[in-house]
Every structure is written in structure tokens, then in C-alpha cells.
Amino acid sequence: MPLVDTSNPRIVDEIMGNFAARGGRHYGEQVTELQHALQCATFAQRNGESPNLVAACLLHDYGHLLHDLGEDIADKGVDARHEEVGANWLKRHFVEEVVEPVRLHVAAKRYLCWKEADYLAGLSEASLLSLKLQGGPMNDEEGREFEALPHCDAAVRLRRYDDMGKVTDMETPAVTEFRTLIESFVRKSD
Ligand code: FE
């Protein structure tokens, strides 16, 4: 008899609860963490991205909601490695197609600074500040290594929505409207 997987609603409840409890944190731009997550996911959805990428967009900064280091850590010169913290937590519950673009979204910023001449000039002040802490633009070797990674394309796409999701007063669906989508990427226990 197949085992009933009861983990799905529980973990997604936890995520919804964490967005409600900590999503009001300032993202370092003109928006909160929750608004930023919703904007990224909404832009991706409007562009017809695959559901796993939309889910990754919603969860890409979840690592920011898992630490208690304060909202202005970048201003203090600290890189919390939120992409690793977030991806490592998500990996326990979600499929690779959601987790790995999250892990690589900071590397994707460093990559795009190397790949595209105009990219760096378009970054927001907060993104430029954190770029320094994250190691600055990639060099040729790092750039080529990044291009060889299986989730490189998804990470770059995610990154572009990340950069867009900083709009003051943008209308988006509520986070609960992404619930079913997120649930569909919870790993089934075997
Ligand atoms: Fe972000």
C-alpha cells in the first residue's frame, strides 16, 4: 500500500506562516521581503515561465526569513549567504528544479556582471552594495564554469525577475494564491 505523504501541507503551512510573520521585513529596497517575493513570482508568471521557475522566484530569498541577523546586515558589511541558507533549507523539502536556481541566484548576478556590459550599470544601490560582499563580478574562468552548470539558465532567468521585483505599490496576487503551485514541488517521500 502506498504511504500517504502528509508532509506537503505541513511544510507549505510553515512557509506561509513565515511569510506572514517575517515577510514585513524591509528588503533593502523600497519593498518588503513579501512584496519582493510576490513581485518576482508575478513577473515570472506574466512572462509565461515554467511553474518551477515561478515557485523558485517566490522562494528565492527565503533564506532572508530564516535568520535573525537583522534587516540591514549588508549595510554592516555582512554577507549572510542567504542563497545557501535558503537553498539548503528548501532542499529538505523541494525538488531540485526549484532549489538549485535559488542557490545560484547570487552567482547569476555575478555572472551577468561578467557576461553583459550593461548589467552592472542597471543594478540597484542595494544590489551593488551586496555584490561587493558577494565577491564582485565573475572572472572569465568563473563565468565559463557557471555556464556549464545544469541550472544556469533558470538561475539567470530568476535573477532578472529578482532585479525587477523592487516596485513600490505593485498589485500582486496574495501569497496564498501560490500555495497550490508550491505544494506541487514538494518532494514525495519514498
Ligand atoms: Fe531577491
Please tell me about this protein's structure:
- This protein has a single domain, classed as Hypothetical protein af1432 (Orthogonal Bundle), CATH 1.10.3210.10.
- The chain contains 10 helices and no strands.
- α2 runs antiparallel to α3 and α6 packs across α9.
- It is an all-alpha fold.
- Helices cover 54% and strands 0% of the residues.
- The structure holds fe (iii) ion (FE).
- The site of fe (iii) ion has 4 residues, from loops.
Structural class designation:
mainly alpha
Please give the largest β-sheet: none
Q: Return the CATH architecture.
A: Orthogonal Bundle
Alpha-carbon Rg, integer: 16 Å
Here the CATH topology equals Hypothetical protein af1432
Strand content: under 5%
* CATH homologous superfamily identity: Hypothetical protein af1432
Head-to-tail CA distance between termini: 12 Å
In DSSP terms (H or I, runs of 4 or more residues), the helix count works out at 10
User: What is the 3D shape?
Assistant: globular
- Averaged pLDDT, please? 90
Assign a percent range to the helix content.
40-55%
Ligands, deduplicated: fe (iii) ion
How many runs of DSSP E, i.e. beta strands? 0
Low-confidence segments? none
Number of domain units: 1
The level-1 CATH class: Mainly Alpha
Name the features.
190 residues, mainly alpha, Hypothetical protein af1432, 10 helices, 0% strand, binds fe (iii) ion
